[in-house]
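Bug #2210: token dump truncated for Cationic amino acid transporter?
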Amino acid sequence: MGIRSNSPSSSFSSSSSTCCSRFLSSALRSKRVISPSEKTARDNSGHGLSRRLGVFDLILLGIGASIGAGIFVVTGTVAHDVGPAVTLSFIFAGASCVINALCYAELASRFPAVVGGAYLYTYTAFNELTAFLVFSQLMLDYHIGAASIARSLANYIVTFLEIFPVFKDNIPKWIGHGLNIGNVLSINALAPILLILLTLILCLGVRESSAVNSFMTVTKIIIVIVVIFAGAFEVDVSNWSPFVPNGIRPVFTGATVVFFAYVGFDAVANSAEESKKPQRDLPIGIIGSLLVCIALYIGVCLVITGMVPYSLLGEEAPLAEAFKSKGLKFVSVLISIGAIAGLTTALLVGLYVQSRLYLGLGRDGLLPAIFAKVHPKRHTPLHSQIWVGCVASIMAGLLNVRMLSHILSVGTLTGYSVVSACVVVLRWKGKTNIEVSSAKRREGVICLIAVAVSGFAAGLLFRYETSIIFVILAIIVAVGASLALHFRQKTSHNRKKTSDHFMSRTVRHGFVRRRLSTEVISGPVLTCLSDIITLNFL
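Reproduced locally. Full output below:
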């Protein structure tokens, strides 16, 4: 009897242990990189996406995702607190994003042309569980971001229409501005309509959606250039003195705010499967779009701080008010049009990226198979695209997402940090077939820990307003650790290369010479150094 009574419990424990072991094995497995032959077979079967995007389309895609209405607002609001040195804030933030862009560019050129972006890189470098968590964080950000941008776009459109006397004070709040019902509900009828229209454009195909994005982005760039040149003739150089009126600390604080004005270049990495020459064009698209954004932001900063003393800049529409004060009211109309175009492209690209991420998880079996289906004629993931549009429409039409939008920075910084770590891990995995002593591996681990701890310490010290000397000291420790590893491995590699060259001259036929790889881990360590330090500052 005793044996029979224990039998169910033992079988239950064994089944539960089996389930746990299966879960752990699935959660900890990494993704195998798809081979070129498998990719070709998928494309020929009609289940792949069509290759329509060239390098110019990819650059415009990144610019369209990055530059929204913020270029006309954030530049002035930050300048009000920082002064003319807001230009330095944008330069520091742009330099940090360039480091992240280099990580994305390397991974984009390393991987085959499949969708996934940061999710794909994490799945390959780490494991399935980490990749799914990264996807969940990205989707939370993208869904909330799409709803927030759609409501802002509706607000800008209604505000622009109210310029005309016919619509002045005749448009109800629930149409575009939003009618709040308590703290959670907020009715906005125009935002879901805009999302449905953009979703339909994306469902038509990547060629049509790329054409719309290119037109709107070029329009936006032209307007920004016109604003810069029109304002350049109104610049008073005396407004730039003193250049750093409030000290260096507000400059770095401003950099933490304007950092998110550059977010969007990572969208290019998700268009790998629709790029004509992904290994060549994706890095160019990522870096090129970011450099264009940096140049435009710096131009606007110099103009707005030169036109009006920074202390007189407004909070709501500083750039438009600056031009109105100079009697250039027509420029304020152009700014409104540019803001509408900027928000439209940011929303369009955001919806595009979400559907491709859902497609990637559907193919990997982490989501229902319906998300992996691609339309045989349009070559777009219709089910994923419609799902994304519906979720964003419901949130934008019914919910007050202003409070939720404040957590968007968490997912952005998490994604960038994980991608930087993927560079290190994948390069480390690439050295598995090479003789690497335990001492060298230990050196690499110690260096990574030193960089991470120093970066975290620098951000923490800056956050609690300690002396800037301690912050600089933490950065010096991190840089020193990376440089020590770099020169240590470079010296070791040169010695090994010299020894290998000497042996190759002494051995005769019949012996096989070992070829050592020149890839070392210090490269990504130096790349991730600035990323870790800057993100901890943020």
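Output looks complete on our side. Residues 66 and 261 are 7 Å apart (CA to CA). Marking as cannot-reproduce; reopen if the truncation happens again.
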